[in-house]
Amino acid sequence: MAERAIVGSSAAGTPAASASPSSLSSSACPKSHWQQIGNLLLYTAAGVRGSEKIAGFDIDGCIITTKSGKVFPTAPDYWKILFSEIQPRLASLLKKGHKDVFFTNQMGIAKVHRPVNWAPGQKKDFSCSDRLFALNLGLQFHTPEEYFLRWRSAPYSLPAFDPRKLDSRGRLYDPPSASFTNNQTDVIVAVGFPGSGKSTFFHSHIVPKGYVYINRDTLGSWQSCVAACERALTEGRSVAVDNTNPDPALRKRCGQSNRYPMSLFSFLSITGAGQAQ
């Protein structure tokens, strides 16, 4: 079996994994190029070789930081390597047969960084989302200071809710004869925090029943969502609206002013908004 171990992390701890002691025999990438795989953009530099040993790192707050210490850069070259120890450590990984992989999300989504003058034993990170990500993948975890500067492990606390302890065989309905859907044209609207499980639930239990799936992330605006609802309902097709939907007025529009039965599926995150996101 592959031995996996985190060898890097972001400011909050995005992991990096070492997958196997043996590396793939692969020719070097002849030319630097970009690939798009779904919503993922992948850049491979010329000379990179495939390997079963992957060392993955978040970029911002782990490998680089802004020159001024501000949260966001103001120009493409407005950055510097976070620690002088980083480059030799990465080079060492390459010599040992690892493929260094860097992750970033530059879509304008704000990130939670550690407080000023943070240090293990003094202050904790605001978020442990990256640590939870590593935990979900079964990987070890290191902060940048732990891995590159060899600091002792930083204090942290995990949320009280642990999904690994849930019984995957538990029933979805109570009573068992109940159903999420019915036989007439209707509208099901999800309400809940981002990341609380709405999309997964809808794709697993609602869409397979023949419901038209409507999502603002895909359509771009609430007006487009309402228009899509109207088209589907006019055709006699039931609709599942998967957004956060906090606004009662918008929820009402999706049901064409109560002309069709509407059910609200409220996803109450027992993890809290922070962990759900």
UniProtKB/TrEMBL annotation:
Which biological process terms from the Gene Ontology are attached to this UniProt entry? DNA repair
Looking up Pfam families in the UniProt record yields: PNK3P
Q: Name one GO molecular function term.
A: ATP-dependent polydeoxyribonucleotide 5'-hydroxyl-kinase activity
Gene3D superfamilies with a match to the protein in the record: HAD superfamily/HAD-like (3.40.50.1000), P-loop containing nucleotide triphosphate hydrolases (3.40.50.300)
Which gene holds the coding sequence for this protein?
PNKP
Q: Which GO terms describe its cellular component?
A: nucleus
Protein name stated in the entry: Bifunctional polynucleotide phosphatase/kinase
The protein's matches in InterPro entries, at most eight in alphabetical order, are given as: HAD-like_sf, HAD_sf, P-loop_NTPase, PNK3P
Composition bias, kind Low complexity: at what positions? 9-21
Segments of this protein annotated with the region Disordered: 1-21
